[in-house]
Design a protein that fits this description.
mainly alpha; Polyamine-modulated factor 1-binding protein 1
Length: about 100
């Protein structure tokens, strides 16, 4: 005895309405993996931006260090000159007595 057409249509509708749990799980895993992939791509972009910014910051810090070292050297040279000038004035005052 063959199944009536309306009965087989009803079965097909039920199968479509209630997908198998494995199919639902596969769909869920796929969706989650897509979300994770998107998040990882965003994280990679942020990491690259951070690397670029940190490189710029490190270059700026290095320039500041060099500038500070140069300034320290100039100040040390000025201190030595002033000290020599002060000793010269003291010698002149002592010899003038």
């Amino acid at each position: 005895m063959a199944a009536s057409p309306s009965h087989s249509q009803s079965d097909a509708q039920q199968i479509k309405a209630h997908p198998e749990p494995e199919s639902q799980l596969s769909s869920l895993v796929y969706d989650m993996s897509q979300q994770v992939q998107g998040v990882m791509e965003n994280m990679l972009k942020m990491i690259n931006e951070i690397d670029e910014n940190s490189s710029g910051i490190m270059e700026y810090i290095e320039k500041c260090k060099e500038s500070a070292i140069d300034r320290k050297r100039v100040l040390e040279e000025e201190r030595v000159r002033f000290q020599k000038a002060a000793f010269a004035v003291l010698d002149m005052l002592n010899n003038g007595e």
